[in-house]
Specification:
Elements: E1 3-5, E2 24-28, H1 33-41, E3 45-46, E4 55-57, E5 62-65, H2 74-82, E6 86-89, H3 93-102, H4 112-123, E7 127-134, E8 137-147, E9 150-158, H5 163-178, E10 182-186, H6 190-194, E11 198-200, H7 202-212
Parallel strand pairs: 1-2, 9-10
Antiparallel strand pairs: 2-4, 3-4, 5-10, 5-11, 6-7, 7-8, 8-9
């Protein structure tokens, strides 16, 4: 059974390895920066719908990207070479989150309290966004949380064809150049698999996280590129 947390309880999470593959580790608590950061450091993330209390997950298996396994097909390679877009880092964090929330059909977990929580993490330098622009139009983006040399990508959006792929390639490659060794995407969807996402067991993920979470990587001045 998941652990029940009350708002204001000590910032402690149980060992995810003691739970089933669905990975519901805890319910309740709050979305203070300290609790959310503690969750990511344990391989846990919040995910729930409006009207529910917070739910904290660590599924098995876990979806990941690394730069050496990133797959860029011919058509995407042409898009990258052709250019015509501009990449920025941390220039429109709130807009990226709001766009990610707006594109979800049938509801979203990016509810107002999540927007507030991750904005607070962003202001603390814990959460980051990569933006793709065409002229003055924000056409794609992705955001996530940094845990040392691991980056937990939370969601992405696009408003122009192929631009979410551009955002993801730029994210994985730029983070790799900055010293980030693993990008966590939670689940391997068919779409992410075509780009090189792969699954690892929760045990393997937690082992890698244990090594990476305290590796110092400074992303404040990252310059995104493909």
């Amino acid at each position: 059974m998941p652990t029940f947390l009350s708002p204001g309880d000590p910032v402690v999470f149980p060992d995810p390895e003691t739970f089933d593959s669905e990975g519901l580790v805890a319910v309740g608590g709050d979305l203070t920066p300290a609790r959310v950061v503690a969750a990511y450091r344990r391989g846990i993330f919040p995910w729930y719908a409006e009207g529910y209390i917070p739910m904290w997950w660590s599924p098995d298996p876990r979806g990941c990207f690394t730069a050496d396994r990133l797959h860029v097909g011919r058509s995407l390679a042409k898009v990258l070479r052709r250019g015509g877009f501009q990449l920025t880092w941390n220039q429109a964090f709130g807009e990226v989150m709001e766009a990610c929330a707006a594109r979800r059909r049938g509801g979203t977990w990016i509810i107002p309290e999540m927007l507030d929580a991750y904005q607070a993490l962003h202001e603390l330098g814990r959460a980051h966004s990569l933006e793709v622009w065409i002229g003055s139009d924000l056409v794609a983006g992705v955001y996530g949380v940094q845990v040392g040399s691991l980056f937990a990508a939370e969601s992405k959006f696009y408003r122009r064809t192929d631009m979410s792929k551009v955002a993801l390639v730029a994210l994985v490659r730029s983070l790799d150049r900055a010293g980030v060794e693993l990008v966590d995407v939670q689940f391997v969807t068919d779409h992410l698999a075509t780009l090189g996402a792969f699954a690892v067991t929760r045990r393997e993920y937690l082992k890698r996280l244990d090594v990476l979470r305290d590796v110092p990587v400074d992303l404040t001045e990252l310059r995104p590129d493909v």
